[in-house]
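Protein Record: Sequence and Backbone Structure Tokens
======================================================

Structure line: whole-number tokens from a learned vocabulary of local backbone shapes, matched to residues.

Purpose: to set a sequence beside its fold so the mapping can be learned.

___
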Amino acid sequence: MNRYRQGLEDLRRALLDLHKALLDAERLAYERIHGRVSSAGEFLQLAMHDPWFAWLHPLSQLVVRIDALLDESDEAGVLQDLMEELRELLRPSEYGEGFARSYYDMLQRSPDVVLAHSQVKRFL
């Protein structure tokens, strides 16, 4: 396996761990307000369509793009572009909006998210 592909797969695994930690933490917050989500299928629908989870969509979309790159491309430059995009996306901001602000808040309240974030940062 070449270095580019291995790096992309390692980054993908770290991003999936971060994404899961964010979803788990956000599910807990959602359930505190709206009550228990009864099934995995219901939660999937919420994660995809409910505005509560919309801030996570940019990260989800980057994971999908990595999957496509693993299927199609072997170009190292594509990996560099993607990593730069991730560096920008994963910049928490106390005073920002959208993903940056929600990500900042999540890093403040979830140790699992902090650990997953540090794993992703190792690859960036």
In short: The first helix runs from residue 3 to 34. The CA atoms of residues 65 and 82 lie 9 Å apart. The chain has six helices and no strands.
